[in-house]
Structure formats: C-alpha cells, structure tokens
Specification:
Blueprint: E1 5-7, E2 11-13, E3 16-18, E4 21-25, H1 30-34, E5 38-41, H2 46-50, E6 55-59, H3 60-67, E7 76-79, E8 82-90, E9 105-108, E10 117-119, H4 136-149, H5 160-203, H6 205-213, H7 218-244, H8 246-250, H9 257-287, H10 291-297
Parallel strand pairs: 4-9, 6-8
Antiparallel strand pairs: 1-4, 1-10, 2-3, 5-8, 6-9, 7-8
Helix pairs in contact: 5-9, 6-10, 7-9
Amino acid sequence: FQGYTFLNDKISHGQAMADEVHFTIAGINIDKILGFNLIAGRWFDHSEASGDKSVVVINQSLKEKLFGDENAVGKNIIYKDQNYRVIGVTDHYKYQGEFSRSVDIIFSPFWFKNANIRSWGKPKTDFIKVISGTSIAEINNLTREISLRFPDYKIEITPLTSDRTQYIRRIWGPVTAVFIVFTFVLLIVLLGQFGVLWYNISQRKTEIGIRRAIGANKSKIFIMILREMSLWASAGIILGAIIFSQAPILKLYPVDLNIFINSILISAVVIYILVTLCSLIPGIQATKIRPAAALHEE
C-alpha cells in the first residue's frame, strides 16, 4: 500500500457525485494479503499494475453513491475530465479499523493524473504474507536482507495481529476508563436521587394524608409521585438537549448529526428509566401513609 490519502475534488459518474473520497495506491496481491471481499469484478493483475493507468477498484459505499443499484464493473468514473474504468467492487471495507466509520475508497495501481490530494495516514506501507509456521528467526533474517538492500531506510516488521491488538487497546482503553467513571457517577446520582425523593416524601406526609382522606387511592398517589419526578426530569432533559445541540451547530466535534440525535434520545430514555427506578421505593412508601396517622402527627 501507498498511504491512504484524501481527495478534495469530486468523483463523478453521469449526474452522480461523490466527494471526500479516500484514495490509495494498492499492489496486485494486497487483496489476498488483507483478505478483501470482492463482491463484483476482480482485482488488478500484472499488466494493469505495469501499464494500464486508468483502472480502479472501488468499495461498496462509493459504488452506491455513484451507481446505485446498477452494476459498476466495466463502467467509468470521472476525475478532472479523466476517465477511470471500474474493474472491481469490494465490500464496506474500513481501513482505519472495524470501529471507524465507513468512507468512500478508491484503490488504484497508480496516482491519479493531476490529483489534488492531501496526505492521510501512513506515507507508505508494504505488506508481506509469510507461510504459516514461519519462525521469528526467519523473519529477522528477512528484515536483515531488506535492510542490506535498502541501507538508507529504517526497516521494521510488525505483525498485523500486533497492530490490531494495539488498535483495539487504543479504542477500548479510553472507552473502558470513561465507562468506569460513568458507572461511579451514575451510582452517586442514583443514591442522591433516591435520598432526595425519600426526604421529599417524608416532608409531604400531611399533603399525602389529606389526599388519601379525600379519596385518593394508593395507585393515584404512586402515579402522582412518578409524574412529578418525570416532569422534573423532562425539564432537565430539555435544558441539557438545548445545550448539547450547540455542539453540531458550532461543529465542535466531527460527529454525524444522526449520532447526536440518537445520543440525546438514548440519554433521555436512560434518564427516565433511572428516575422511575429511584421513584419506586419512595412511591411505595408514600402509598403506605395512613391519613389518620399523618394528620395526627401534624
């Protein structure tokens, strides 16, 4: 692979357009080494890698934008008035890892002519597939042979499994830390919410006793407590949503708008569930208040 890059100009097919396309120079065997899943067409061969500079392989995401439900193999895409023939389509390949978002990708054995490209990712990476059971000593010998052939370069061979392990740690490390902090904060909030509700019920014994005396049954008292807590939770959710909605408007984080909307909805559901759980025991306590005892204490 030559390093992944980012095309600033549009790729088109007829009236269909796609921008923010990620471009890479790929060798003839990289599909076998990395296990690309070709859903249509084929990969580059030796003749195309050495002579034909107008063939490309695209991924499923770009194919859907440019061709829709049509077959893309054998058709042309246009970049700066140059035609490039599509010979294959891969599936939704995520080159930055399985936890990254899907992007539009073009694979080519050569640079595009007059391409307006900015660097993205590693500048150059070569992949070598070794026979299963190859020892570390043999890999070290290979490293030395490559170093002797290219003395001006620093050669480092890293197993893909090691790279993937480090990638997963980089992703899940911060997530795990945030989850632990979130769990402790959530526990503190639950205890605080439970204590406030318990104290609130104990201070409203007279009110609840009068309501019971004029005909309110246990279920109505319980629903009243839940409704009041839900109204306070709704006020907090609306205020939080207004503040949180400023992030996509001001473009503070590079996250899709749908993710922000879904996160707000999920947070609202979680808050309502927590408020309901915290209201159960105080609500049941309120239903057990006897009118005579409440008025007698007053």
